[in-house]
Amino acid sequence: MILAIDIGNSNIVIGGIDSSKTYFVERVNTNHRKTELEYAVNIKDIMDLNGFSISSIEGSIVSSVVPPLTEVILSAVRKLTGSTPLLVGSGMKTGLNIKMDNPKSVGSDLIVDAVAALKDFTPPIIVIDMGTATTVSVIDQNGNFTGGIIFPGLRVSLDSLSSRAAQLPYIGLDKPGKIIGKNTIDSMKNGILYGNAAMIDGIIDRMQEEIQMEASLVATGGLASSVISLCRHKIHYDDALLLKGLQILYEKNR
C-alpha cells in the first residue's frame, strides 16, 4: 500500500491505495499554521483509525496546489516513514500530453485527475472536480488534455453570499427536496445546489458541442456528491479518483 496525499486549498486528502484497491480516503482541513509534527500526527491517527500501521506503507506520493504547505507535508511524511515522498510536478512522467498555452501552469490536481480518468474511462472525457474551486477539464478523443474552465466552488459561493448579506445565514448543504424553497435557508441551499447542477449540465452541453462528440463524464471532490445526483446528465462519481491518479503516477515514477 502507498500513502497518497493531495494538498488542496480547503482540504488535504489522505488515502491508502494500491493497484487493486483503495483502502481508505480521509480529509483534514488545510491549516497553514500546523507544523510538520502536527500533520504527521494527523496522518498516523488516520491510519490507526483505519486499522493500518506505518510499516504497511511501501512508498508515498504528494500533489499540492498550496506551495507554502508542500514542504511541511513532505517533512511530515518523511518523519513518519523515513523516506521522501514523490512530488507531482515538472519533470515527472505522466504519459499525458497537455495541449495548453503554458503546460507547466496546469494544476497538479487536474493532471492527476486526468491520468486516473484515462485509465478507467474512454476518451473524450469531461472531468469535474468540486473543491474550493470547481474545475471542468476536457480530455479529447486522442487522450490529450486540451483545457477546461474554473469557477468558484459551492462553499466559496455560499460563504460569500452569507458574509455579504446580513439577513442570510450560514447553512449546511444537505440534499434538498423540491427546488422551490419555502424559507430562506431552503431557498439558499436550493440556489447553490440546483444552481451548480444546472451550471454543470449547461457546461457539459456546450463542451460536447465544441468537441462535437459525447464524452464520458466523471466527477470527484468533497462536494461533488451533493450536486451530481441533481444533474440531468449521467455522471459517474468517484471519490477516490485523485488518489487513483497518484497511485498510477507513483508506479510510473518510483
Tell me briefly what this model is.
By secondary structure, the protein is α/β, with parallel strands linked by helices.
Which residues sit in consecutive blocks of at least 5 with pLDDT less than 50?
none
Query: Rg to the nearest angstrom?
Result: 19 Å
Count of separate structural domains: 2
Question: What's the N-to-C terminus distance?
Answer: 14 Å
* SSE ordering: EEEHEHEEHEEEHHEHEH
User: Helicity level, as a percent range?
Assistant: 25-40%
- The number of distinct β-strands equals 11
Output the structural class.
Answer: alpha/beta
Provide the fold topology:
Elements: E1 2-7, E2 11-17, E3 22-29, H1 36-49, E4 59-64, H2 67-81, E5 86-87, E6 97-98, H3 108-120, E7 125-130, E8 133-139, E9 144-152, H4 154-164, H5 184-211, E10 216-220, H6 224-228, E11 236-237, H7 241-253
Parallel strand pairs: 1-4, 4-5, 6-9, 7-10, 10-11
Antiparallel strand pairs: 1-2, 2-3, 7-8, 8-9
Helix pairs in contact: 1-2, 3-7
Which terms would index this structure?
alpha/beta, single chain, 5-stranded mixed beta sheet, 6-stranded mixed beta sheet, 11 strands, Nucleotidyltransferase, domain 5, 7 helices, 254 residues
Q: Please, could you describe this protein's structure?
A:
The protein is an alpha/beta fold. It folds into 2 domains: 86 residues, ATPase, nucleotide binding domain (Nucleotidyltransferase, domain 5, 2-Layer Sandwich), CATH 3.30.420; 149 residues, Nucleotidyltransferase, domain 5, CATH 3.30.420.40. The protein is 39% helix and 24% strand. It contains 7 helices and 11 strands. The strands form 2 sheets. The protein has a 6-stranded mixed sheet, sandwiched between helices. A 5-stranded mixed sheet has the order 3-2-1-4-5, sandwiched between helices. Strand 8 and strand 9 form a beta hairpin. It comes from Lacrimispora xylanisolvens. Keywords: ATP-binding, Coenzyme A biosynthesis, Cytoplasm, Kinase, Metal-binding, Nucleotide-binding, Potassium, Transferase. This is Type III pantothenate kinase.
